[in-house]
Amino acid sequence: MAKDIKFSADARASMMRGVDILADTVKVTLALKGE
Questions:
Q1: What's the rounded Cα separation, in Å, for the pair 13 and 7?
Q2: pTM confidence score
């Protein structure tokens, strides 16, 4: 059970990192279109 919880936390951390990268990419794209 503890192993599943740890895996779930690691998976969430990895997913959040991916979302942050995607959000940064979108911000840059929108900034370029705005100019």
A1: 10
A2: 0.53
Residues 11-29: pLDDT tens digits?
A: 889 889 999 999 998 888 8
Cα(14)–Cα(9) distance, integer angstroms? 9
* Cα dihedral 10→13→19→23 (10° resolution): -160
SS (H, E, C) 1-35: CHHHHHHHHHHHHHHHHHHHHHHHHHHHHHHHHHC
**21, amino acid identity:** I
CA distance 17 to 15: 5
